[in-house]
Structure formats: C-alpha cells, structure tokens
Amino acid sequence: MESVFMDEKRTQLRQTLRSRRRALSAEQQQHASRRVCQHLLSMPLLHDSHHIALYLPNDGEIDPTPLLQELWHRGKFSYLPVLTPGQRLKFVRYTPDTPMITNRYGIDEPHPDYDQHLEPEQLQLVLMPLVGFDSNCGRLGMGGGFYDRTFAFRIAEPGRGPALVGLAHECQRVEQLPLESWDVPLQAVVTDRELIANPALPADGLF
Questions:
Q1: Residues 150 and 88: beta-carbon distance below 8 Å
Q2: Which domain holds residue 106?
Q3: Mean pLDDT confidence for 146-172
Q4: Which of 79, 84, 143, 169 could form a disulfide with 53 if both were Cys (CB 3.0 to 4.6 A apart)?
Q5: How many domains is the chain partitioned into structurally?
Q6: Distance between CA atoms of 85 and 165, rounded to whole angstroms?
Q7: Cα angle for residues 194, 175, 188 (degrees, 5° grid)
C-alpha cells in the first residue's frame, strides 16, 4: 500500500512540475537556458572534462544545446543518450554531421548505425534532464527509469564513473522529493538562478 501511495504521489508531482515548465514562455525558456549555460561554463568540472554527455530538450526541459559550439571549439567530445531495448541508455558521439532519427518519445537521437559510443563509466560529466529536484539534489525524472538503470552502479559506488549534474528551471524545485531506493543521486543541480551541490557528496572541482 505504501508503494502504491508513493507511486501516486510521484505521478501527481510529475504532472504539476511538467505543467510549470511548459507554462514558461519562449523568452523565459531562452533566458533560463542562457543562464544555465553560463553557470556551466564557469564550473571547473566542465573545463576539466573532455567527454561530456548532454541531451536534446523536450517537454519544456532546460535547453543545454547552446553549449555545444563552445564544447566543440574547446576540443571536447559531446555525447547524446540513445534508448536501448534494455531500458538503459547508450551514449553516442554527437557532431554536426551525426545522422539522426526520432525515437518513440519524439526526441531526436543519433541513428543506431552510427555507433561511436562510450560506456557510461567512461564519461566524465553527464548533464541530465529532470522533472523535479530538491536542495539535497534528489532527482525526479519522467518515470522511464533510463538514467537510474544506466547509472545504478553509482548507488553502491558514488565515486565511480562521471559526475551527474541535473539541469532545471528554478520553478522545478520542491522542498523534499519522495525518493525510492533506486533513484541515483546527483552530484549537483544547476538552475537559471544558482548552482547547488549535493551536501552528501564531495564537491571537489564542481564550482
């Protein structure tokens, strides 16, 4: 019964927070994206990382793609998530010439025949979308569990693999998220207003 209640609470919260971000105007979205990208470019972690995963925005998510030109200019390698049959993500190299398809959620991703990818553990920084977050860097996703399955190894070994940083509009913040045992904690959250470090994880190199 408690599990059913938790599922209902998370579903309702997703609906509320998705409505909030979709209600933002195009101008508000662009301003938030610029602010988040400025924050990210100020992070030592981004400067020190060479293999960086990000995402193409959907459903009102913060748009990180203005970073791409700067990443390429600095000689860094960028990657996009690709859905796999095992409900996990594969991270495929992304360049201006990468052939793309549209996945079942209506999001563009690299064509499966274009297979220049890294294992999740080999990435250095992963910029992740989210639906909701709290001040402890808890993350509520869309409900598919793709990121949590892909980075589940970080629950037992928090220092293994890439730094996971969530990107969000400030309006997606809640006081405390109802989290499950399989929810992978973020190392930080970056919003259009501030950078928030997970108080339970080392912040070395983040800010």
A1: yes
A2: 2-197
A3: 93
A4: 79
A5: 1
A6: 25
A7: 40
Q: Which residues pair with 51 in a beta bridge?
A: 77
Q: Where does the pLDDT of residue 1 fall: very low under 50, low under 70, confident under 90, or very high at 90 and above?
A: very low
Q: What are phi and psi of 195, to 5 degrees?
A: -110, 130
Global model pTM greater than 0.85: yes
Residue 117 lies in a domain: yes
Question: What is the per-residue pLDDT across 34-87, written as a single tens digit (0 to 9) for each?
Answer: 999 999 999 999 999 999 999 999 999 999 999 999 999 999 999 999 999 888
Could you tell me if residue 207 is inside a domain?
no
Residue 203 lies in a domain: no
CA atoms within 13 A on the CB side of 53: 28
- Cβ 64 vs Cβ 55: under 8 Å: yes
Q: Does the CA dihedral 115-76-123-14 come out positive or negative? A: negative
Whole-angstrom distance between the N-terminal and C-terminal Cα of the chain?
Answer: 42
* pLDDT tens per residue across span 116-157: 899 999 999 999 999 999 999 999 999 889 999 999 999 888
DSSP state of 201: S
Whether 206 is in a domain gets the answer no
